[in-house]
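Batch manifest, entry 17 of 40.
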Amino acid sequence: MLVVSFVLLGALWKRPQLEAHAGGRAPGEGLSRLLLGPVRIAVQALSVGLFALVFAAALLGTTDPFQNLAPTWVYVVFWLGVPALSALFGNVWRALSPWRALADGFVWLWEAGGREARPLAAYPGRLGRWPGAVALFAFAALELAYSDPSSPRALAFGIALYTYVALFGMAVFGRDTWTVRGEGFAILFELFSRIAPLTSREGRVRLRLPFTGLAGAEHVPGTVAFVAVMLGTVGFDGYSRTITWQDLAARVEGPYVVDRPGLGELLVSGLNLAGMLAGVLIVGLAFVGACALARWLVNAPRPLTGEFVLSLVPIAFVYEVAHYFSLFVIQGQFAVPLLSDPLGRGWDLLGTADVTPNLAVLSPNTIWYVQAGALVAGHVAGLAVAHDRAVAIFRERDDALRSQYAMLALMVLYTVGGLWLLSRG
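Output type: structure tokens
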């Protein structure tokens, strides 16, 4: 499929198309004012309320993760639901983020008192998205490396720490600057939102063709590292479920299970951290190597990593779909009864405590077809984004095509690797 797509792109896609349609068109001004005004404020208020509820559940609720709202909300509803919303409806995290809502509310109160709200320091440009990459890696480490990631108390600590860093960063460097550079979730969801047919620009909601938000280059430092974290941590999650990795973890922990179980858990956490880092490095180095080969093939005067890095965004999104689709559909149903009893105290606040999830809603064949189809479609989309950028930056059509040989090989590598992980998990 990828080879056929490559041939068709070379034959039919001779001029850049994505950037030409990236602006989109704006619907009625009244709709924009409604969505970006009252609706956004209402959603922000709701997000702060839900944030407080989830944090209270994690801090004060039962320690049983199956009866506490926090683990299901954080790892399923938030972590898997917001990427899907972002890819469908644009940068909804701008309104859903409780940290941005708290910062906006503070600034509004501060300026209502006749004072000027301004950052305390200028953000160092050389840092780029590196702080965001570290933040995203830290969250993945909590989920994939820590011995008890579903522990409500561990989640409470993680939520409190992330909240402190997010609000401190916004206070020091400004809300907009920290959101697009240091706040890991905001960066992640903004990148996914570039897939969507909706965006907002200059205070207006705009309709555009899907994937046109991925047109152009991205030369912000740390962007390659951030995207490598997006892909590498999900890839490690798949590999960590294989028998090979499970056996390795058992051998590391085995000698300490009886006498020193705490040390055994710590060693396994260290092993998982090393595996995550290896996954990130493999993904990142493969992309950098492909871009170096493409540069050599066409004798380009500058590195091409910033030119093609956005082509990895659709792949990162479909990796999430492929790996977590069934978890989201099945486990996400448990959020309905848990919302009625968020702290696990036997409440029925919404009348949904007795709702029974349908665990057989997906057949194994359906899950596999969605996983395989998503992976192939995402890599084809990534190849199209890279090809569009190539015909935009290279005047000679032969140079544009030669630069994509390496990208085709990279996409094939990622696809085969993704399908292998799914088959082994």
